[in-house]
Amino acid sequence: MNTYILAKHLHLTAVVLTIALFLLRYFWLLRGSGMxxxxxxxxxxxxxxxxxxxSAVALCLLIPLNPLQHPWLWQKxxxxxxxxxxxxxxxxxxxxxxxxxxxxxxxxxCLAMAGKMAVSKQALLML
Length: 127
Fold this sequence. Notes:
This protein has 127 residues and is mainly α.
């Protein structure tokens, strides 16, 4: 299997895992579950997000794509970073139910827009 295909599959697997883990942890948060205190729950999502970002960089180098020359790509990268920070806010810092739901909505919107850009190769904002 060539390097590009391997990096692409790794990236797509990390995308699915990061979404699944975020949804699971959010569900546990709303339920007040003790599962959020499990050691693997505190480690694995960070590893997955690191793989997600590292595989994105690898794909940019393999294709090659310069994010500064492709607005859709730098906007997608910013949305993924915003998703990670918003997810952190929702799971660790948000106090009330409203802020948790709003943060969750923002995180999901970031992922949806990043996914749309990944498929369409079209930027949301033409700056």
